[in-house]
Amino acid sequence: MLRARILYFMILVVLPAASVTGCSQGRGAQLEEPPALERHGDRLTVPANSPLRSRLHAEAVELRTVRRHFVAPASVEADPARAARITPPLAGRVVRLLVHFGESVQKNEPLLALDSPDLVAAQTDYLRAKSALGQAERTLARQKDLFEHGIGAKRELEQAQTEREVAQSELQRAEIRLHLLGIDPGHLGEPLMVRSPITGRVIEFSVAPGEFRNDLSMPLMTVADLSTVWVTANVQEKDIRRVRPGQDAIATFAAYPGESFPGKVLFVGDLLDPETRTIKVRIAFANPNQWLKPGMFATVTFTETAAAEVLVPTSALVLVGDKSYVFVETGPFAFERRIVEAGEQIDHATIITSGLSAGERIVTRDALLLQ
């Protein structure tokens, strides 16, 4: 009788507990959610009941015509073909300055007067050669007269002719020397006038009256025509292939904020600077108002020739470490994670240089959800 009562009590206790346990397990099974994403290596599948389906958006990759840009630091230089460094033709003393710093000068206009011992020697040589020629011509005339009257010998006549020719050569040499110095043989005894070889402005000035200059390589001043100037850009080695003569370029200057100066690449240098790993690229700019001064700093933006590129929204790229990935659609809500090489960013898009072809479909929105 006692055993029956104990058994009945255990049934009353165990049955409700089992019922509660069974209900709990049923509710847990009902609360378990299906997987949002199925992974098989680099291949992903979004199940039919996944909430990701409503958030992902895929588009076909297209080729777009773009013009890429890159910038380089630069500085303004005078065109060497339009600049002249004025050096003394002879060692001597500056007796008079005829121009000042910043003045405009014309071609062949006198810049300064120089007095030199070598100038005196050149003038003396000319006078001596001229006198010798006169003497030789008088001797020749006398020998001709004697020969015609049968008094003089033919040998003496020929000797006089030779001496006259030598004297002529010496006079021509002396005249050429004076002309090279810019001296008119008809105005001897005057200081040497150093003249400007070009029309321009005096942009450098390093001489004073009374100075004696014996270094013929040291410039006294520099005259430059700044109606056209060069802007020389230092292009990095990695960008050399992206620049060529005739290419469009736009320069900006700190002195003129908000303004830009369009130009074209004149030429690309052939020597790479081993220290900076840059190459010189020169652009010619018209400078009618003389706004651009040699030595100014500038920033040059180069525009490449238009070309077809694979361009994708930047939101389609997923960066993991130092690698960029996109998710390529391989079927309905099936994707493959693929490594791509990302290039320049243009607005909200990025150029893909390798790893992706036009026509392929990729996830362009919420691609991070697949990572």
Structure write-up:
There is one protein chain. The chain is an alpha+beta fold and 371 residues long. Strands 1, 2, 4, 19, 20, 21, 22 and 23 form an 8-stranded antiparallel sheet that branches. A 6-stranded antiparallel beta barrel has the order 5-14-17-16-15-18. A 4-stranded antiparallel sheet has the order 6-13-11-8, with no helix packed on it. Strand 15 and strand 16 (261-272) form a beta hairpin. Helix 2 (117-148) packs antiparallel against helix 3. It has 3 helices and 24 strands. It has helices at residues 2-31, 117-148, 154-180, and strands at residues 38-40, 43-45, 57-60, 62-66, 69-78, 83-86, 92-97, 104-105, 110-115, 192-195, 200-205, 212-213, 221-224, 228-236, 248-253, 261-272, 278-286, 297-303, 307-313, 318-320, 323-331, 334-346, 349-354, 361-365. The relative contact order is 0.18. Residues 1-31 have low confidence and may be disordered.
Notable traits:
24% helix; 3 helices; eight-stranded antiparallel beta sheet; disordered N terminus; 371 residues
Please write out the topology.
Layout: H1 2-31, E1 38-40, E2 43-45, E3 57-60, E4 62-66, E5 69-78, E6 83-86, E7 92-97, E8 104-105, E9 110-115, H2 117-148, H3 154-180, E10 192-195, E11 200-205, E12 212-213, E13 221-224, E14 228-236, E15 248-253, E16 261-272, E17 278-286, E18 297-303, E19 307-313, E20 318-320, E21 323-331, E22 334-346, E23 349-354, E24 361-365
Antiparallel strand pairs: 1-2, 2-22, 3-24, 4-19, 5-14, 5-18, 6-13, 7-9, 7-12, 8-11, 9-10, 11-13, 14-17, 15-16, 15-18, 16-17, 19-23, 20-21, 21-22, 22-23
